[in-house]
Design goal:
117 residues, alpha/beta
């Protein structure tokens, strides 16, 4: 499994990479926010883990297209209101930051298997 990680905080992305690599043995790729749209469009990731702060209209459209093509999605957020889910992405997990490692791993694993949150 390959996971694309896009977060506004580089240290959070590094932590995600470490947790997912240790727990799932998956490969990861960290992308800086300015490259989010291009990477979402061109990456061969099985799962995209992305901070909800980066959800502009163009990014939402790209993520919806990727989801329709079978790519798993997981969102991360510090906003408590978003933790119940996002209207544009029903059923997609929103993981609270700071992460609970087990919940992050479970969400990514479920997304990789096409399961809903």
């Amino acid at each position: 499994m390959h996971v694309l990680i896009i977060d506004v905080e580089f240290l959070v992305a590094l932590e995600s990479e470490q947790v997912l690599g240790d727990s799932l043995g998956c490969s990861t790729e960290i992308v800086v926010p300015r490259d989010a749209a291009a990477s979402i469009e061109t990456s061969h990731a099985d799962v995209i883990l992305i901070d909800t702060e980066l959800l502009s209209d163009p990014v939402v459209a790209l993520l919806q297209r990727r989801r329709r093509s079978g790519t798993g999605l997981v969102f991360s957020s510090v906003d408590k209101r978003e933790r119940l889910g996002l209207a544009d992405f029903p059923g997609v997990a929103v993981i609270a930051k700071p992460f609970d490692d087990e919940k992050l791993v479970e969400a990514v694993l479920a997304a990789s298997q096409g399961e809903m949150a």
